[in-house]
Specification:
- The protein contains twelve helices and twelve strands.
- It has helices spanning 21-30, 80-104, 117-131, 157-168, 178-187, 230-242, 257-264, 281-289, 305-312, 342-354, 361-372, 374-389; strands at residues 4-8, 36-43, 65-72, 111-115, 135-139, 172-175, 216-221, 247-252, 273-277, 293-296, 317-320, 334-337.
- It has a six-stranded parallel sheet with strand order 3-2-1-4-5-6, with helices on both faces. It has a six-stranded parallel sheet with strand order 9-8-7-10-11-12, sandwiched between helices.
- It is globular and about 65 Å long.
- 43% of the residues are buried.
Length: 398
């Protein structure tokens, strides 16, 4: 195998340094085993768009990966049709520039890996038709589920048609959970499928230097958007304190004004609830290592990386049964509850505290690190590439 080209629909960039950072980690895991080029193109949202059409590399990598980040100017047309047409053309144009460069350098890939079907999958369709290069898809998006606020069913007819077309021509589908894989195969198109989970940098997320806090410490890490339901966590935690339990809650993420105002009114939590604000990847690991248990109370999810990271640090997890979380969290490493049920969350917090000794921190960490490490996930991707290129018989996972 000469090389692989990744086409990412989401990726860290100057507009948002965190979007798709899990895709970047998956790329780095794969690049340990095969040369990898990656292309990501997005609108330049800066006021003067002076850097449109320029490269931007998020950070230096120590693996065999070359990231091509391209920006294109936003259309000034007041008409929605022409605005979208301009955006699609510019998106293709930026990819074609890089593809010509790769062809000139004789670095055209043997196989393409699409990260999130729309809209990077459109470029994969072009490469399949123009150069006969097969492609596989990894999907993270929860929009395939009708309960999502950004559900596929609510998208336009063209979007839905192209999404189906992309899956129909894919050689392999690599969802991060069985839950997501089954949903796509049932509602979009049946594709040979293998579940490969999100990846964790286990050199950072592990039990090394873990410290037991003086008081039992819950931790929540997220974007703190409404779908993460941080308010529900805080209300349940407040009732925990009112019922006489001695614990802290650390919330990591960019707290919106409304959430901050809610906290300001919780005088009983003044010495029990702490916000860190938005932090980098390494600091997330540091915060997890100082906690006792992790809490997630989302309404909808796919497979949150932070749950896998918490498990790699040996933390038992309390989480709602959203998306494919039940595929990672069970009785041996946590407690699952119904989304939105604050009574169940309160009970789970109490059970974690009173039954904490039954959780084996080292065992939780070891099992998670074996499942989600760079080496494990990277090797799985390369095995799939080899199957596709060798045209081996594959079947849909159920």
């Amino acid at each position: 195998m000469k090389g692989v080209l990744w086409l990412a629909s989401w990726y860290p960039n100057k507009t948002d340094h965190f979007t798709g950072d899990f895709i970047q980690r998956q790329a780095r895991a794969t690049a340990r085993f095969v040369p990898l080029n990656l292309i990501f193109a997005t609108k330049d949202l800066s006021p003067d768009q002076a850097e449109a059409n320029n490269y931007w590399i998020p950070e230096a990598t120590d693996s065999d990966i070359h990231e091509y980040i391209r920006y294109y100017p936003v259309s000034r047309s007041p008409f929605a049709f022409f605005f979208k047409l301009h955006s699609v053309w510019q998106y293709f144009k930026q990819h074609l520039i890089i593809l010509k460069e790769l062809e000139k350098k004789r670095e055209m890939p043997d196989i393409v890996h699409v990260q999130v079907a729309m809209k990077a999958g459109l470029i994969a369709l072009y490469l399949r038709k123009r150069y006969k290069i097969p492609f596989v898809i990894t999907e993270h998006w929860w929009g395939y589920f009708d309960e999502s606020t950004d559900a596929l069913k609510n998208k336009g007819m063209v979007f839905r048609y192209l999404t189906k077309k992309i899956f129909q021509h894919a050689s392999f589908f690599l969802p991060v959970t069985h839950n997501l894989g089954n949903r796509v195969n049932q509602t979009i198109s049946r594709v040979p499928t293998m579940v490969i989970p999100n990846v964790v940098d286990t050199s950072k997320f592990n039990t090394t230097d873990c410290k037991d806090p003086e008081r039992f410490r819950f931790i929540h890490v997220s974007s703190l958007l409404n779908l993460k339901n941080p308010e529900g966590i805080i209300r349940s935690f407040e009732k925990l304190i009112e019922s006489g339990f001695d614990a802290d809650l650390v919330i990591v993420g960019p707290a919106p004004a409304g959430l901050q105002q809610m906290i300001a009114k919780k005088s009983k939590l003044r010495d029990r609830l702490f916000f860190t604000g938005e932090v980098n990847y390494e600091t997330v690991a540091t915060q997890l290592k100082k906690a006792s248990a992790f809490v997630l109370f989302s309404w909808i999810e796919s497979l949150p990386c932070v749950i896998l990271e918490a498990l790699c640090c040996g933390l038992p997890v309390i989480s709602s049964r959203a998306g494919g979380i039940a595929e990672a969290v069970g009785a041996e490493n946590g407690i699952l509850i119904d989304a939105g049920n604050e009574g169940q969350l309160l009970d789970a917090m109490k059970k974690i505290i009173t039954g904490y000794s039954r959780y084996d921190k080292e065992s939780i960490s070891l099992q998670a690190r074996q499942l989600y490490s760079y080496d494990t996930v990277g090797k799985q991707y390369v095995q799939v590439y080899q199957k596709v290129l060798n045209k081996e018989s594959v079947s849909v996972q159920r």
